Structures are given as structure tokens and as C-alpha cells.
Amino acid sequence: MYFLSKELFFPPVYEANFEGVLAVGGDLSPERLLLAYKSGIFPWFENENPILWWSPNPRMVLFFDELVVSKSMRNLLNRNLFKVTFNQNFTEVILNCQKIKREGQKGTWITNSMVEAYCKLHTLGIAKSVEVWQDNELVGGLYGIDLGHVFCGESMFSKVSNASKVAFIALANQLKLAHYKILDCQVYNEHLESLGCREIDRNEFIKILNSNY
Length: 213
Fold this sequence. Notes:
The protein has a seven-stranded mixed β-sheet, sandwiched between helices. A four-stranded mixed β-sheet has the order 1-2-4-3, covered by helices on one side. The chain contains seven helices and eleven strands. The two termini are 27 Å apart. α3 (90-99) packs antiparallel against α4 (112-123). It is of the alpha+beta class.
């Protein structure tokens, strides 16, 4: 495992361990975070622990033609119960992602330092959000890093049933229209799989990531 210094550098992703941890330390500066995402790396660590940088193999992604919208979900969307906006309330989205209780997790990996760092990226036009509203109340959403051809999803939240799915589907449709290549979802979970996401080899992911650079 590589221990980062102040130098703006990451080792090659193939040096990650079997869990996907590549490096420890460094900082959450906009420059380092942007380099990380462009390299197929993301931070994920618990409060008061050192920063851990990950590049898992395999990688969970969505190819837009494989998006799954169930019949019940399609019926829900057709009822227009929700309003979806893009990049209108980033701070509230990330704060809700930080506070939401998740099954099997004691706390949150979205530390205050992470909130501050991603809000800085938002002001630079790099971190973006999707908001889901019901009766003028923010009830769901997600945020991530926009690389121009790949969107790296970070976290979602729901205050009412299916609100995060609405955000995800809206984002996927928007990215497809804008000719993005994939939506990066980082690691496997059943919720993502139900929406059509699947795991691919990290080498394939890096190839897609590098295709516009």
C-alpha cells in the first residue's frame, strides 16, 4: 500500500490490494480529487481515520442502454409525483447523504472534511447533484463527479420510497442524451444491480475513462 506525501501523485491502480485499497494519506484538495477520479480512484474512509484511496476490481458501472426501469417504477414516474432538478441544491443533497441512516452501517463515510471538499468541487463545476422534490420538499437525490464523458456517482439518499431511484433514472437518461459513456457506481450492491448496473473488469473501466483524455 502506498503512503501519499504532499506530492500530487497516485500509484498505478493495479497496485491496489485485493480489497481495492491503493493508497493512504494525502489530502482532499480539488487538484488531488480531480486527479484521483480521472485515474479511476476515489476516497472512502471513516471519520478520524486516515484518508483511504480505492480502485476496486471489478468496478460497478451502468451502460445506459442497460438501464432497467421496472413496470411499477415506470407507472410511478408517469404519475408525476416527483419533480427532478439538476445541480440546484448541491449542499443540501450532500448533507442529506451524510445524515441518512444506512442498513449495516454504524456511521457515515461522508465526513465533514469530505462535505467541505466536494462543495469546493461543486463551486468549480466538477461536483454535481440531482434533486428530487415532492410538494416542494427535498425528498431524494444524489451527487457525484462530472468528468465530461463519465459521471462518477458518489452517494444517494431517499426520504420517501423510490426517490433515489427517480434521481438515478433521471441522471442516467440525461447522461445518455449528452452522449456520456458510462455512469460509474464504484462497488456492487443489489440496489444498483436492480437498476441495470453490472461489474466490469477494472482494465475495461480505465480504458473507458481514458478514452477522452
